[in-house]
Write a structure and sequence with these properties.
There is one protein chain. The protein is mainly α. The protein is built from 15 helices and eight strands. The strands form four sheets. Strands 1-2 form a two-stranded antiparallel sheet. The protein has a two-stranded antiparallel ribbon with strand order 3-4. α4 runs parallel beside α7 and α9 runs parallel beside α11. The mean pLDDT is 96.
Length: 405
């Protein structure tokens, strides 16, 4: 029997209880959005459906096509030197400016992983126009962390959604460090670190969010040697572990796919950034989880339960991560089959529209959109592809035979 988890009082979150100040901010940002947002970029939506229906296409080719599709659309939507991207769709409960930040923070890790996969700094969009990936990432960090720039990502407040997004941005910086960080002058490096260090002083909800400042702090230590890691946050995350590979999302939290694309995704990256950090627990808990979780994967989707169903394409992330960490419960062929089947099933049924994952299972479906999910939130769906691009070559993902599920 799992040890009872000591509960904490849930804080009163500003955007769940908006005041006049927040309403004024929302109004101002909505006006700005009307002037800066672009038309929906639907140029290749039908092509994506056809290519993911084509069984002659390899998994490697499908992932390459997906990156090209996303990069071309991102280039269309981005504004203010790649610091924000206003995608069309249903807004979240945060400000529309935060929605536009998600349009960058949740997309850039895909491009950073592609740099590692391809060892090339440019790719061609599906329109064959060249896109300079490393320069795009470099500009986003230089300007997003500059308080004098129009695209500044802003001050981090307590319980701020930007704390969550800072983790994906930090991961991007770590993945792309050979192309971006290592080529920045010290002044710009310090500017970027100063922005990230804000997470050290922010209060957060007592659940999976502990992993966001932790990931930022791990990246800062790796890049600079500054060790401000709040290990008590990691200890608290482990208190949520109830056995058999499952975490409860907070003392009173539920069990759902956040185990897959939240907890284990973050734990995997902590391991990659600092391979000696609590290796036994991360490997063993993931191995236990994958042993049963593998059976959720089918050629026709997955069983749905819990929150954030619109992140559905990321379900295979812990399987691929498990193979990379040497876990025995899943073979590379099974992980490959799970990734390819889920990508094919959802995308061939229209899960991408206007350059982004839809806010639903197939097409947009407001019944499945949580109040915290904005137009670009569904880009967390790319987390399985990000892990695959990052480690695929060393685990032989692309060449392995896909074993039956």
């Amino acid at each position: 029997m799992a040890t009872p988890i000591t509960p904490t009082e849930r804080p009163k979150l500003p955007y769940e209880h908006p005041d006049l100040h927040i309403y004024k901010k929302l109004f101002k940002q909505n006006v700005i959005r009307r002037f800066v947002r672009k038309s929906a970029y639907k140029n290749h939506d039908d092509f994506m459906i056809k290519i993911f229906q084509d069984r002659t296409q390899s998994l490697s080719s499908l992932c390459e096509t997906l990156v090209r599709y996303v990069a071309e659309a991102f280039s269309h939507y981005q504004i203010w030197d790649y610091t924000h991207a206003y995608y069309p769709g249903r807004p979240g409960q945060q400000t529309v400016r935060t929605d536009a930040l998600e349009g960058v923070s949740r997309v850039l890790p895909l491009f950073a992983a592609w740099l590692i996969h391809s060892r090339q700094e440019t790719l061609n969009g599906l329109n064959l126009q060249s896109i300079h990936i490393s320069d795009m990432i470099r500009q986003a960090f230089i300007h997003g962390t500059d308080p004098t720039h129009k695209g500044y990502w802003g001050k981090l407040e307590n319980y701020d959604q930007k704390i969550c997004e800072s983790a994906d941005l930090a991961l991007t910086l770590w993945l792309s460090k050979d192309w971006v960080w290592d080529k920045l002058e010290p002044r710009l490096q310090q500017q970027i670190i100063t922005w990230f260090e804000q997470v050290n002083h922010c209060e957060i909800v007592d659940n999976n969010w502990h992993l966001f400042p932790l990931l930022v702090q791990f990246v800062i230590r790796d890049l600079t040697g500054i060790n401000d890691i709040a290990l008590w946050r990691y200890d608290r995350v482990k208190e949520f572990y109830v056995g058999d590979g499952w975490f409860r999302d907070g003392a009173k939290g539920n069990f759902d796919y956040y185990n897959a694309w939240g907890f284990y995704y973050s734990l995997y990256w902590l391991n990659q950034i600092s391979p000696d950090f609590d290796t036994d627990f991360i490997q063993q808990s993931l191995n236990h989880f994958n042993q049963h979780y593998l059976h959720f994967m089918t050629p026709t989707g997955i069983p749905f339960f819990g929150r954030s169903a619109c992140y559905r394409l990321a379900v295979s992330a812990p399987l691929i991560a498990g193979v990379d960490l040497g876990c025995s419960s899943v073979t590379v062929g099974e992980a490959k089959n799970a990734l390819e089947n889920t990508l094919r099933y959802f995308i061939s049924h229209g899960a991408f529209k206007a350059g982004a994952p839809t806010q639903g299972l197939f097409s947009d479906d407001p019944r499945l959109v949580d109040n915290y999910s904005g137009p670009a939130s569904s880009f967390w769906s790319l987390r399985a592809v990000i892990v695959a691009l990052y480690c695929g070559q060393r685990i032989d993902l692309w060449e392995a035979l896909a074993n039956p599920l």
